[in-house]
Amino acid sequence: RRFPIRKLASFFSLFSVQSSIGIKMYGTATIKPTRGIRFDFRSDTVTTPTPRMLENMITAEVGDDVKNEDPTVHKLQEKVAQLCKKEAGLYVCSGNMSNQLALRTHVTLNSAKDIVCQTILADARSHIFKYELGGASFHSGTQIYPIKPENPTELLTADVLEKYFNFANDLHTPITSIIVLENTLNGMVHSIDELKKIKALADKHKISMHLDGARLWNACAETGIPMHEYAQYFDTISLCLSKGLGAPIGSVLVGPKDFIEKARQYKKLFGGGWRQAGIIAQAGIYAIDNHWPLMKQDHENARLLHREMAALGFEGVVPETNMVFLNSSKLGVPWQDIVKEIRAKNESNEEKVLVDGQGWDARFVLHHQIPQHGVEALVSMMKEIVPKLKTTQSA
């Protein structure tokens, strides 16, 4: 059945206000701004539903997803699973939940193979290690061994991972049972050649492979490599809909059908059961169809921002996708001081720029609600602020 429009009226009104930035984004309709134009560089999780996305959400056919009866949820799950050429998908509320469901299910299946004490290898910078509240130990009774590449501008390789394998049943160290990679990680794209090597190594030692593919959409958009070519090297993949794609909620976990059915049970156990979820699943479908094909624009804007900031004296590696990391040490001006100046200018400017960072380090994340003009607005601010603060610092 279709969701009654009257039930979504207040929901539509709420997001219409928040999504009204007053300029055209990826060709969407616009609404008169109510609180000035905001260009939010803090993350790609800050996007709000566009008017056209909201219109699509209203038309969604819904059912009870706990009973596995929501047709729009089924459509989304099947769509993402097909993109990855996996047997099944499971729509959940967040990337955090999707990753934790994957780990819990992998650990359970490995325990059935008499692997009792297990460890997971992951990049020390990864979301699953740093930003999920130690979920692997809490939910799965296992630990993540964080590996830090020698070069911070590089990703984990097969050679590095192999050094940390442990298969000795010596009652002191848990057995390596799962490898988790993240693609993209800090905007960097894992190469297919290296994934092949890691997969061959994992298969040799019967190690499970999980991919945190929250931003795999960005990797595919940048390289032109189909999603299934990345996905073939992993048993399971988590794909986020609420980052660069711009949907408000949700991630999809994909993998073998039997695996996903077990994960569905854990989803309910973790409190992840939801009812008429097709309303928000429809936003994910819309985002895949309409935002993903244009995602490379975000990467071009990221590289534009890098060029402009480098010209002002900031240092940082040229971004591969939508994340820009810069350091202001060369300027002699702490980035946190620049942030204070930006916030002060936002008080009077019609065009407001939101940024984050601490110390000397800045991170910018581009998304579909920051067009080229948004980058230009930030750079214009920087051209005023940086000379002023450099003069102050040298005085």
Report on this structure.
The chain is of the alpha/beta class. It contains 15 helices and 12 strands. The strands form 3 sheets. The protein has a 7-stranded mixed β-sheet, with helices on both faces. Helix 3 runs parallel beside helix 12 (278-290). The model is unreliable at 9-34 (pLDDT under 50).
Question: Which key phrases capture this entry?
Answer:
395 residues; alpha/beta; seven-stranded mixed beta sheet; three-stranded antiparallel beta sheet; 15 helices; 43% helix; globular
What is this structure, in a nutshell?
The chain has 15 helices and 12 strands. It has helices at 5-18, 51-58, 71-84, 95-111, 127-130, 135-140, 158-162, 192-204, 216-223, 227-231, 257-269, 278-290, 296-311, 335-346, 372-394; strands at 37-40, 88-92, 118-123, 143-147, 175-182, 208-212, 236-240, 251-255, 323-327, 351-354, 356-358, 361-365. It is globular, with a radius of gyration of 22 Å.
Low-pLDDT segments: 9-34
Q: Radius of gyration, rounded?
A: 22 Å
pLDDT averaged residue by residue: 90
Helix content: 40-55%
Order of helices and strands: HEHHEHEHHEHEHEHHEEHHHEHEEEH
Helix/strand-derived category reads alpha/beta
Largest beta-sheet details: 7 strands, mixed
Query: What overall geometry do the principal axes of the alpha carbons give?
Result: globular
**What separation lies between the terminal Cα atoms?**
69 Å
Give the arrangement of secondary structure elements.
Blueprint lengths: L4 H14 L18 E4 L10 H8 L12 H14 L3 E5 L2 H17 L6 E6 L3 H4 L4 H6 L2 E5 L10 H5 L12 E8 L9 H13 L3 E5 L3 H8 L3 H5 L4 E5 L10 E5 L1 H13 L8 H13 L5 H16 L11 E5 L7 H12 L4 E4 L1 E3 L2 E5 L6 H23 L1
Parallel strand pairs: 1-10, 3-4, 3-5, 5-6, 6-7
Antiparallel strand pairs: 2-8, 7-8, 9-12, 11-12
Helix pairs in contact: 2-12, 3-12, 4-11, 13-15, 14-15
